[in-house]
Amino acid sequence: MPDIKQLSEEVANQISAGEVVERPASVVKELVENSIDADSDRILVEIENGGKDLIRVKDNGIGIEKENIEKAFSRYATSKIENISDLYSLNTLGFRGEALASISSVSKLTALSKAKEKLKGVKIVYHGGKQIKKETAACPEGTDIKVEDLFYNTPARYKYLKTKTTEFGHISKIITQESLSYPEIKFNLKHNNKNVLSTPGSGELKDTIYAIYGDEIFSKLNYLEFEDKYIKIEGYISDPSLTRSSRIHEMFFVNKRAVYSRTLSKAVESAYKGLISKNKYPIVFLFVKLNPILVDVNVHPAKKQIKFSRNKIIKSVVKEGIKEKLNELNPAVQYKVNNNKSYEDKVKDNEIKNDKNIKLDFSKDNITNKDLNTKNYKDSSNKNSNKYDTTNQNNRNNFNKNNNSSKDYKVVRNNNSNNLTIKNIFGQVFLSYILVETEKNLYIIDQHNAHERILYDNFYNKYKNGKNVSQKLLTPINLELTPSEIEIINNNQDQIKKLGFEYESFGGNSVLIQSVPEIISKKSVKNELREIIDKLINEDNIDNSADMISEMIEFMACRSAIKADEKLNNNEIKKIVVDLFDSSNPFRCPHGRPILIKMSREDIDRGVGR
Ligand code: ADP
Ligand code: MG
Question: Which residue owns the Cα nearest ligand 1 atom 7?
Fold first, then answer.
């Protein structure tokens, strides 16, 4: 039997350093966060060769007293918490008391510190965890820590470091995040003696963003702020026209702590879906404030990951908040929560005239006022605009109350600039667009996006009102599935059924599909089913959330909608325009893509120099 020995503190520190200190950027993060916790308002960071040779963090905070300094460098020694319950009311970044011990065990570290109102400071030196020196020293108030030759005594770790440029990239991201999170602190970052980043410390987030990202990017960012029962969100999000090819500028802060969060990334990306192309990512600085009880920061020693206890709610609040902001960016529209009346109900209540009753003569070049019975549309849109409140404040409140029924927005026909009263429909151009004249504008309508919106609205309204959305197949379809697909289907029977699918198990891994959602195009039921199952499988949380259901409906609407380069007959053209103008949002498809291009009389006059 080999002997069982207690590890020396030195070795134990080196082992735990493996978790806390992954690379130079981790050292920077730990030291800077200590400086922040020490109430500093100036933090200077100097790096040499990507942090491999030198990392120096100097602050003007409260400092460490000479009698405490050795404690600061021993493991599990912290001034920040006493009990585990303190974690739930944490207001410091550090709490584990292991950073200084870990860092000093894998580098050559020199600390100089002077506590406030002390005459003398202290200097302490560690090499590979061994204390080399401790003496009284003259120095300014605050703490100045130099970390040289990181991983010099752990060659295996040193080998894993990437190039200086890559390592410095990680460092600069850390400093960017910390300075965004603490705009009241003046940060300076130097690399090989060159000033790389400095922030004004004015206390304003926007000044900090401006200082780091510059005018061009700043001008494409939009401030947003919203809150819900559980959380408050504030920050900046980029116009869909400004994207990056990695997630590096998607930054999330939860209770001021910079974090990685798949939940938040997914929420943001699904809000932008359809507005930016695949594999592109927005620039987002999102500050989430929530009761600390709802978030666990102690998932990982480096404290980069967090766990939310209300994952789904947080995801949907963030997604809808961003979506709403993105929709507002379309200057032509404002949104308002719907009165929940479906299209059919409005027809029944005579609020709008069913377009099926309108007869058109398509032998003429175009469709005229009279043909379209314009008056009816005018009346209905006026009625609508009386009913809907246009103030933003109210939108905000309504949104907060109804955040889980995000699809129920209604367009407010504001300022008459968007008065969608049809005057003329000129038909199809390029087999893809429909031209329409209204009182003030010429609209070019994308037929696919428009049809997607119409299909989505119809189906969603029916679904929401519990109406039958299912259509029987003439010949049932037999689908072979894998065991995990069968499991997904079985676990989600209720939702799948509610969406309009009817099927029975056909023994083994086969199911026999008898009915499908009426929105599915009959041409390729089988393919679509497979895609829907794939989509279900790829969803992280399959649940009954409004989110998932509406994504499914979006998906089916997109698949079934008329495509570009498809010839439409005149009745189809008319139906699309009429249904679109009556839809919940004629300006954007359910994915968020624009449906209309608007040209006013003035635009055209200006264009020809009139
Ligand atoms: P933690 O931050 O989790 O408490 P650390 O090992 O990072 O653990 O630091 C240990 C202790 O050293 C801190 O609790 C704090 O009291 C002190 N300390 C570290 N850095 C500084 C600093 N820059 N200024 C003042 N005190 C510091
Ligand atoms: Mg710390």
Answer: 99
Instruction: Transcribe 336-402 into DSSP letters.
Output: EE-----HHHHHHTTSS--GGG----TTSSSB-HHHHTHHHHHHHHHHHHHHS---HHHHHHHHHHT
Tokens of 4: 């069982």
Q: Whose alpha carbon is nearest atom 19 of ligand 1?
A: 34
Expressed in angstroms and rounded, the spacing between residue 259 Cα and the centre of ligand 2 is 16
**How does pLDDT run across 330-364, given as a tens digit for each residue?**
644 332 333 344 445 544 554 434 333 333 333 33
Q: Pseudo-torsion of CA 484, 489, 491, 494, nearest 10°?
A: 170
396 Rama sector, left if φ>0, alpha if ψ -120 to 50, beta otherwise:
alpha
What is the CA(352)–ligand 1 centre distance, in A?
68
Alpha helices in 427-569 (DSSP H): 447-464, 483-491, 493-498, 525-538, 546-560
* Ligand nearest to C-alpha 62: 1
The Cα–Cα gap between 92 and 82 comes to 13
121, 139 contact by CB (below 8 A): yes
Is residue 158 packed enough to be buried (19+ CB in 10 Å), middle (13-18) or exposed (0-12)? middle
Which-ligand-closest: CA of 116? 1
**Is the distance from CB of 37 to CB of 16 less than 8 angstroms?**
no
Query: What is the amino acid identity at position 320?
Result: E
Q: 354: CA distance to ligand 1 center in Å?
A: 71
- pLDDT computed for residue 330 by the predictor: 60
**CB-based pocket (< 6 A), ligand 1:** 30, 34-35, 38, 59, 61-64, 72, 77-80, 94-101, 143
Total count of residues recorded for the chain: 610
Closest CA to 192 of 38, 49, 60, 57: 49
Average confidence (pLDDT) over 451-463: 92
pLDDT at 552: 80
Measured from the Cβ of residue 91, the count of other Cβ atoms closer than 10 Å reads 10
pLDDT (0 to 100) of residue 532: 76
Q: Are 257 and 302 in contact (CB under 8 A)?
A: no
Place of tokens 């559980």: 230
Percent of the residues in the chain that have a pLDDT greater than 70, as a whole number:
80
pLDDT at residue 539 tops 90: no
Ligand 1 atom, smallest distance to 33 CA: 2
Between residues 333 and 319, the one the model is more confident about: 319
What confidence score (pLDDT) does residue 237 get?
96
Ligand 1 atom with minimal separation from the 103 CA: 6
Cα 250–Cα 254–Cα 256 angle in degrees, nearest 5: 100
Residue appearing with tokens 């003046």: 186
Q: How confident is the model over 393-446, as pLDDT tens digits?
A: 332 232 233 333 322 223 343 333 456 789 999 999 999 999 999 988 899 999
- Which residues contact residue 532 at a Cβ distance below 8 angstroms, ignoring those fewer than 6 apart? 552, 555, 556
Residue-level pLDDT at 364: 31
Across the chain, what does the average pLDDT equal? Answer: 79
Atom of ligand 1 minimally distant from the CA of 59: 23
Q: What is the distance between the alpha carbons of residues 608 and 610, in angstroms, rounded to a whole number?
A: 6
Atom of ligand 1 lying closest to residue 62 CA: 25
SS3 annotation, 112-148? EEECCCCCCEEEEEEECCEEEEEEEECCCCEEEEEEE
